[in-house]
Write a structure and sequence with these properties.
heterotrimer, A alpha/beta (296), B mainly alpha (295), C mainly alpha (323), B: 295 residues, mainly alpha, 11 helices, C: two-stranded antiparallel sheet, 2 strands, disordered N terminus
Chain lengths: 296, 295, 323
């Protein structure tokens, strides 16, 4: 009688390890029970495109169920860092990552890690909405279908749920067969978000999701982000500082480091902390210069 | 034009040799166009005029009579059957392989040496004379397996393959990269990205290119001379025995002294042109309606 | 994989990160590579198999393959007459087609407003889609009898005039080098036109505008801005047309006259490599057949060389143009 009690007590206090029947070759990501525990741990990450070092020694942690914003001037590597989180940089010829990114304790760049599997856990929404030239329904159902779900009933459920989460359902529920290309900018971006949510990822990465949208559409997307925060961890790259203050819990400020002798530039993480602190009490002079609008 | 003080600048068109030369040049360019318009119109008019009077359902289905028979007898049924079978087989072989080859060039090979070599040689291969393809299949197949519709299909397939590769490659290039990224970001493998997003997006242009390749193959005669051994009896089995096709019949009738045979040749020519035009039209319609990749 | 309560917001584990590359993905890549390699394989096989079949001819004649006499009954297979015929008809075709094609290309890119361009392009496409055998049929049944009379009058008109007599004087025949050249010109115009258009389209607009801004007429702009930029590429386009003309078989076979002679008289009947192969193959055996296939080998070699050079030139011109 005591034993079961003991077990339940310990399971509250310790993170529960993934129970696999056989020891996997790759340490599998562990689920953390408490919100606010790190989902990503980046350790001295540097990204190269060929011999060009785009980003140098970035170390930070992204926390569960938070919205983390990457801000900074153009060319500072914030999108590059974002794309290391779901291994999208693999698609660029000559791209290389040094250092490590741990996702729930497991290295994303380990030897046996499959980028495909990584991307099923960590989704991405792009700067310019890129709906597939398929129907709205097929756009959202695409992810579940390639994951093996073919049951029509289940797909209907998933499509509706994802479109609701993306605050698009009411607008398109009567025309699910219409082409995804026919939507306005804001709707198309919400469609892309629905598409990403349909596979139920753990994390949603967003690369300047509102920069191609008008203010009303932007506001809708920001509301969406706040709504889904409780179920997902979100990392957003934005060049709009007001947006960062509106939606994010933490903010990372990147900047460009110039090496005068070798005439090279590289992106670095200057400061990282709670959004309020970054904007109201920045510690680094560069941060202060940027957030007060002195630098572009 | 220099303006001297006190003079009103002249904005009227300059007279003289420069203007005349320009006008002559423009006229010459228009003349060039007319020069190609004339033979095209002449050929089409002749084919339609001489061919239309012999076309009938009987003509399209009846067996091929001896050359001396008058125009009212017989038809080119076996030739139409042969063309459908042979070109159909060639299409089934060349189009999928061509699409796969283009996928390699565009999605996997990229700028690598092998891909550039294959792309370059595919372009060169479109310039190989069709008669050489016929001699090739003769040497490598017919000598071992005798004449057959299939041999003809092999020759036509070799002609179609580089054309399909090139046109498909162009279409795949047009698919914007953000579509691929969107698919990768959802955890798709490269094969899946290609088959479920890239190909469907490009399918309009691909089909249109394939139709044009088919139109070209349907009109080819030379490669068939050495592979199907033109006969006049219908042969529904493309894998065994000689066969015939519409262009083959036109060729053998063109040199005939008998007006009946010549008339049949005109009728066959009209049939061939109609087939080619229909395919071309279909290609245009498909291109216009089915190629939209992004908002 | 353990239970999937959904990773978001619960203690559930995320999906596993390791996965062997799916078998389907790898085999797909291999299949596409195989399809691509097929191009190279076929080209090599063409060269090898046809040369093999033509070997008896090469062996029997040695350098005599370029001999002047082609007489199958007495086992003489010198191909010079056909090489000559191919060269002459192609040259005639090029001389006639190039100015016309370049003219149309310029018409389309510089002169006509956009709305008129589409119908003109349709006409060119229609021209391209007429099958070779239909050109040949019309050629021999309609064009040849008509032009035979014209040749005759020209022939008698130039009798006595030194050079012209040798070129255009009798013997004349409707089916001749010149007729074949004309028909070939019709057939290669579409490809030369469309490639020239591609090349001319890479001329930067600022160059053209610069010329106009100096008060140039359109002709002067073409001479000054378009021509220097695209002449390389147009040469490539012309070479491609040449390759096509050299290999064109059926139309030539029907209207060239099928007479294996080397003569300067352009209105006289002649023969060309593809035409003789097409016309005489059915009855050929042994060395005769090897000779015909050997002509095919020569044709293959010539057209490959011309096409490689042409593609290199066109490729470079377009690259440089859009750089």
């Amino acid at each position: 009688m005591e034993q079961p009690e003991q077990e339940s007590v310990t399971s509250l206090q310790q993170p529960e390890p993934v129970a696999e029947p056989q020891a996997p070759p790759v340490p599998e990501p562990q689920g953390y029970a408490e919100p606010g525990s790190p989902v990503f741990d980046a350790e001295k990450v540097s990204c190269y495109y060929g011999s060009f070092r785009a980003v140098t020694d970035v170390s930070l942690s992204i926390y569960e169920n938070e919205i983390t914003a990457f801000i900074g001037p153009s060319g500072c590597g914030k999108t590059t860092v974002l794309r290391t989180l779901n291994r999208m940089n693999d698609l660029v010829a000559g791209a290389r990552v040094e250092g490590d990114v741990r996702y729930r304790g497991a290295s994303l760049y380990g030897k046996d890690v499959s980028p495909i599997a990584v991307r099923r856990n960590i989704g991405m929404v792009f700067q310019k909405p890129n709906p597939f030239p398929k129907s709205i329904y097929d756009n959202v159902a695409y992810g579940p279908r390639i994951n093996g779900e073919h049951n029509r009933g289940k797909l209907d459920e998933i499509v509706e749920r994802s479109l609701r989460q993306a605050a698009l359902w009411d607008e398109v529920k009567d025309r699910l067969k219409a082409s995804g290309l026919g939507l306005s900018g804001g709707q198309a971006q919400r469609l892309c978000i629905a598409r990403t949510l349909a596979v139920e990822p753990d994390v949603v990465l967003m690369d300047e999701p509102c920069s191609a949208l008008d203010p009303i559409a932007t506001s809708a997307i920001e509301d969406l982000m706040r709504d889904i925060k409780s179920r997902y961890t979100i990392v957003i790259v934005t060049h709009n500082m007001q947006q960062a203050t509106r939606v994010s819990d933490r903010t990372a400020f990147y900047s460009v480091l110039r090496n005068e002798e070798s005439d090279t530039r590289t992106g670095v993480l200057v400061e990282y902390g709670r959004t309020q602190q970054i904007f109201e009490d920045p510690q680094d002079p560069r941060t202060e210069a940027y957030v007060t609008g002195q630098v572009g | 034009m220099a303006v001297t003080a006190g003079q009103q600048p002249s904005l009227r068109e300059e007279k003289g040799w420069r203007r005349t030369k320009n006008r002559i040049a423009t006229v010459l360019m228009v003349v060039a166009f007319v020069l190609v318009l004339i033979p095209l119109v002449l050929v089409l008019i002749t084919v339609v005029a001489r061919g239309a009077k012999i076309i009938s359902w009987q003509f399209l289905t009846a067996p091929i009579p001896p050359s001396v028979a008058p125009a009212s007898e017989g038809g080119i049924g076996p030739a139409i059957l042969g063309t459908f079978l042979i070109v159909g087989l060639a299409t089934v072989m060349a189009v999928p392989l061509g699409i796969l080859g283009a996928i390699y060039l565009n999605e996997y090979g990229g700028k690598g040496v092998l891909a550039r070599l294959i792309g370059f040689m595919a372009d060169v291969m479109t310039g190989v004379p069709s008669i050489v393809m016929g001699l090739f299949i003769f040497s490598i197949w017919v000598l071992h397996f005798q004449f057959s519709g299939f041999a003809g299909a092999l020759a036509l397939g070799c002609l179609m393959l580089p054309v399909v590769i090139r046109s498909t490659d162009e279409m795949l290039k047009l698919v914007p990269n953000p579509l691929r990224e969107g698919s990768y970001a959802l955890g798709a493998t490269k094969a899946r990205v290609t088959m479920t997003v890239v190909l469907p997006a490009a399918i309009g242009g691909i089909v249109s290119g394939a139709l044009l390749a088919i139109a070209r193959a349907a009109g080819e005669t030379a490669p068939l001379l050495f592979t199907i051994l033109t006969v006049t009896t219908a042969n529904p089995n493309p894998f065994k025995g000689p066969n015939t096709s519409i262009p083959s019949q036109i060729f053998s009738n063109a040199t005939s002294a008998f007006t009946g045979a010549q008339d049949r040749a005109w009728g066959a020519a009209l049939t061939l042109i109609v087939i080619a035009f229909v395919l071309m039209l279909a290609a245009r319609i498909i291109t216009a309606r089915f190629t939209r990749y992004s908002r | 994989m353990t239970q999937q309560t959904g990773p978001a917001g619960t203690a559930g584990p995320a999906r596993p990160l390791s996965q062997r590359r799916p078998f389907g993905d790898r085999s797909f890549q291999i299949i596409t590579l195989g399809a691509g390699l097929l191009v190279l394989v076929i080209l090599v096989l063409i060269a090898v198999s046809t040369t093999q079949q033509a070997a008896p001819w090469f062996k029997a004649e040695g350098w005599g393959i370029f001999g002047k006499t082609w007489n199958p009954p007495s086992n003489q297979f010198g191909a010079l007459a056909f090489i000559y015929g191919t060269a002459i008809t192609s040259a005639i075709a090029i001389i006639m087609a190039v100015p016309v094609s370049v003219g149309i290309a310029l018409l389309l890119t510089e002169v006509v407003p956009y709305r008129w361009a589409r119908p003109i392009v349709y006409v060119i496409d229609l021209l391209a889609v007429v099958p070779s055998v239909v050109w040949g049929l019309w050629g021999i049944l309609v064009f040849v009898p008509w032009i035979a009379k014209i040749y005759k009058s020209i022939g008698s008109a130039v009798t006595g005039i030194p050079v012209l007599e040798n070129l255009f004087g009798p013997p004349t025949s409707g089916a001749s080098f010149f007729t074949a050249g004309i028909i070939l010109a019709f057939m290669i115009t579409p490809i030369v036109t469309s490639l020239s258009r591609e090349v001319i389209a890479t001329v930067p607009a600022i160059d053209k505008e610069g010329a106009y801004a100096l008060g140039a007429t359109r002709l002067e702009m073409i001479q000054g801005a378009v021509w220097p930029h695209s002449k390389g590429g147009i040469v490539g386009a012309v070479l491609l047309g040449l390759g096509r003309a050299m290999g064109e078989t059926i139309a030539a076979a029907l209207v060239i006259g099928s007479s294996a002679v080397i003569t300067s008289h352009l209105f006289a009947p002649g023969d060309s490599m593809p035409a003789v192969i097409a016309n005489q193959f059915p009855e050929a055996t042994g060395t005769f057949r090897a000779a015909l296939i050997g002509l095919g080998v020569l044709l293959f070699a010539f057209t490959i060389i011309v096409n490689v050079i042409a593609r290199l030139i066109v490729g470079r011109a377009i690259e440089q143009g859009s750089a």
